[in-house]
Amino acid sequence: MYSSSSNDFQKGSAYDSYSVPSAPPQPPPPPHPVETTATGIPMSLTSKGNLPPSPIAGGGLHSHSPLPWSTGLCDCCEDFSSCCLTCWCPCIAFGRIAEMVDRGSTSCGVSGALYSLILCVTGCSCFYSCFYRSKLRGQYFLEESPCMDCCVHCCCEECALCQEYRELQNHGFDMSIGWHGNLERQKRGTGPPRLQEGMTR
User: CA 24 to CA 37: how far, in whole Å?
Assistant: First the structure.
């Protein structure tokens, strides 16, 4: 009787000596992914440090310097007809310039009449005409020369108008037929080249 129980005790001791293997240790949790911002630059370039040059405002990699005027300020005799028109009837010359620069939103008659009114009342029509010189330069990306626009018109009003008149002519405009006449010429394929924003109204 005791021998059987002792045998059972020995078997139980033998089972206890061999412990049940525990579960394998869990692998460490993966590190949190680093949030990256998409830059549009290939990783091969960034890893080597060869970053492309960042474009400047305007969409190009290089800035363009302003273009020179097609004629000089004192080259009035290059176009004798526009020189005579500006000397004797500056209101008409300015009206034609303003109509072209405004792209038909104002007529030659209205702009010329307003120019004459300012000239007769204040004698300072140059402060009105210099605004259109700045606008013309912006359309064709011309340099501000030989000095500021207001100074050019205050000191040499007739020369400035002649230069602007010739500039528009050299860009292919027929100043005598107005904006809408040039627009019709362009539709027929014989007009001046398009401006940066197109000849639309």
Answer: 38
Judged by average pLDDT, the poorest of 67-71, 73-77, 98-102, 131-135 is 73-77
Alpha carbon 94 to its chain's center: 28
Predicted local distance difference test score (pLDDT) of residue 29: 65
Contacts of 81 (CB under 8 A, 6+ apart): none
Count of C-beta atoms within a 10 Å radius of residue 58:
8
DSSP designation for 142:
B
Determine if the pTM surpasses 0.70. no
- Kindly state the DSSP code that residue 141 receives in the 8-state scheme: T
DSSP string, 73-109: TT-GGGSHHHHHHHHH-HHHHHHHHHHHHTTTSS-HH
Question: How far is it, in rounded angstroms, from Cα 155 to Cα 127?
Answer: 11
Q: Nearest Cα to 114, choosing from 101, 127, 104?
A: 127
Q: Which residue from 174, 158, 173 is spatially nearest to 90, judged by alpha carbons? A: 158
How many C-alpha atoms does 166 have within 13 Å on its Cβ side?
Answer: 23
Q: Which of 107, 129, 83 is nearest to 181 (CA)?
A: 107
Return the half-sphere exposure (C-beta side, CA atoms, 13 A cut-off) of residue 186: 18
CB 93 within 8 A of CB 86: yes
Could you tell me the two tokens for 88? 């004797």
Hey, how many other C-beta atoms are within 10 angstroms of the C-beta on 152? 22
